[in-house]
Write a structure and sequence with these properties.
Strand order of the largest sheet: 11-10-9-8-4-3-2-13-12
Number of helices: 15
Structural class: alpha/beta
Radius of gyration: 25 Å
Distance between the termini: 35 Å
Number of strands: 20
CATH topology of the largest domain: TIM Barrel
Number of domains: 2
Strand content: 15-25%
Largest sheet: 9 strands, parallel
CATH architecture of the largest domain: Alpha-Beta Barrel
Low-confidence stretches: 1-35
Mean pLDDT: 90
CATH superfamily of the largest domain: Glycosidases
């Protein structure tokens, strides 16, 4: 959010697109008396379809907490410093016209929130198990601050990693490596939870169910870490197999007939399917489930010319099966290569994943935005814009996600400014997810138009506060408001609005469902 002079920030014209935050800013400033006699709202159903459709595009950035990649910027920051960084990150996202944040809340069987199931992450204080001091709930804070800015907040979990290679803190007494050591295996310089341990999978699902029950997240998200990426033995250069012999032998002795590779894939498949079921059977079935896997297809299905690592054979991730069965709401394949890199061609891979989608789930590619650096081998900033434009040409009104937020926050090589002035010149709302809720929202209630106190000169254009409905909105309730100024339509999303401009002459209002479906429109002329 730009640091504007106070007088400009409180200008009535700057309140177009405003919210309760803008109202509060006015309430805290010296005010002149409210303007009397707001204009009447006269029903005008003929205007309902004149307001255009809202631009739709998922625009997200991952915020990685592991190794302090994005937030907090380092271990041991005070509560006030951590919260200030949250606000800076979110203000930057709003200024860029992003509409979602994917926040890593479980990096290594730990928690970025108070949990009875797992210890506090070391990436907050520097010591695993140590709560913030003074105490606060980071996840609740992120959600509240994101929602206050109109941003979605998706909670990102790592299901199986138990200790990351850059971790320094000793494990807390409540960490799985201490309480359930039979689940945890050392693989290279990391600790990993064995996906073949059914009780470990149950624990992971309990962690997700706990977050769903206690927090108003908009999405549950997992990335590409299923079985670990393979490592080699230094002396022999031979690939080391994951040490899951005990769980494998139990499967064999119970009469299991799958090959070891197929058994591993089944373990991951079952976790993905059960994650979706956990969300659907929760009290918040509208929460979207997203997965961001490695971007290359299984070898047997690859388009001509595509080559590289096989997640199907090495991570035991059968992503094509998950899409075919609709076990997710959005897929964000990590297409982390430049457009002209033929063995991993961005357009070919994007077309491939869209073709593997019989149930028409969202396909929102992950972009390797952090490859824009201050070093000589940096990607040009034009690469990111070009990938967004290519994605829009292939599939308008879909979306994408940036890895990661730090590159945008730092405006590397002018990247954020170029996006803001180019592909993000116009704001957009995330696409609807209608398969999660087929119920069409009710028509919006008749709004209440109130005069707004002003800091402006007496001859300034009137400013009005619009409430939908009068009083406090229901939890999660949002409205889409189009206002016509002369012949130009402008849109806002929220539950309370501030509208200014002398040539305001019409309003069109609709209610949005929890999954983004727009209900019937109500239209009014100003009289």
């Amino acid at each position: 959010m730009s640091a504007e002079p106070k007088s400009k920030a409180l200008s009535r014209r700057s309140l177009i697109g405003g919210s309760a935050a803008a109202l509060m800013a006015c309430a805290q400033s010296p005010l002149k008396p409210a303007l009397a006699n707001p204009p009447r709202l006269l029903p005008a159903p003929e205007l309902a379809e004149q307001a255009p459709a809202v631009p739709r595009e998922f625009r997200a950035a991952w915020v990685a907490t592991v190794a302090n990649i994005d937030w907090p910027s380092r271990k041991g920051l005070s509560t006030a410093e951590q919260q200030a960084e949250v606000r800076t990150l979110l203000d930057s996202a709003v200024a860029l016209k992003l509409n979602a944040i994917i926040l890593q809340v479980r990096t290594s069987a730990d928690a970025l929130y108070p949990s009875a199931l797992e210890p506090w992450s070391e990436y907050l204080s520097g010591t695993q198990g140590l709560a913030p001091e003074p105490f606060y709930d980071p996840l609740a804070f992120w959600i509240n601050e994101a929602h206050a800015r109109g941003l979605e907040l998706h909670a990102w979990f790592n299901p199986f990693r138990a200790r990351q290679s850059q971790a320094q803190s000793a494990p807390a007494a409540s960490h799985l490596s201490q309480t359930q050591p039979q689940w945890v295996k050392r693989y290279g310089d990391q600790l990993w939870i064995d996906p073949g341990e059914e009780a470990a999978a149950n624990h992971c699902l309990a962690v997700i169910a706990d977050v769903l029950a206690r927090y108003e997240v908009d999405g549950i998200h997992i990335d590409d870490y299923f079985y670990p990426y393979p490592i080699t033995e230094p002396a022999s250069k031979q690939e080391l197999d994951f040490p899951d012999e005990p769980s494998w032998q139990r499967f064999v002795q119970s009469g299991g007939s799958l090959s070891r590779a197929d058994w591993r894939r089944r373990n991951v498949d079952q976790l993905v399917q059960r994650m979706q079921q956990t969300i659907r059977l929760s009290s918040k079935p509208w929460v979207r489930f997203g997965i961001s896997p490695f971007g290359l297809p299984k070898p047997a299905l690859r388009p001509p010319g595509i080559a590289g690592f096989s997640q199907y054979d090495k991570l035991y991730a059968d992503v094509e099966l998950w899409l075919a069965n609709g076990w997710l709401d959005y897929l964000a394949p990590q297409l982390y290569w430049p457009i002209k890199q033929a063995p991993q061609a961005f357009d070919v891979l994007l077309d491939y994943w869209r073709a593997q989608n019989p149930l028409q789930r969202h396909i929102w590619p992950g972009l390797f935005t952090s490859k824009v650096t201050d070093k000589a081998d940096s990607w040009p900033i034009s690469e990111i814009s070009a990938q967004i434009e290519l994605q829009r040409a292939r599939a308008p009104a879909t979306g994408h996600a940036h890895f990661s937020m730090v590159a945008l926050l730092q405006n590397r090589r002018g990247l954020a400014l170029a996006l803001k002035q180019g592909v993000y010149a116009q704001a957009a709302m995330p696409p609807a997810t209608p398969w999660l809720d087929v119920t069409l929202p009710e028509p919006a209630p008749t709004p209440l138009l109130l005069a707004l106190p002003t800091t402006e000169p007496a001859d300034a254009a009137p400013a009005w506060q619009l409430r939908l409905p009068p009083g406090k909105p229901a939890e999660g309730e949002r409205y889409l408001l189009w206002s016509r100024h002369g012949e130009q339509w402008r849109w806002q999303l929220g539950s309370e609005f501030v509208i200014a401009e002398q040539d305001l002459n019409a309003l069109v209002i609709s209610r949005l469902s929890r999954v983004g479906v727009e209900g019937p429109r109500s239209a009014f002329r100003l009289g």
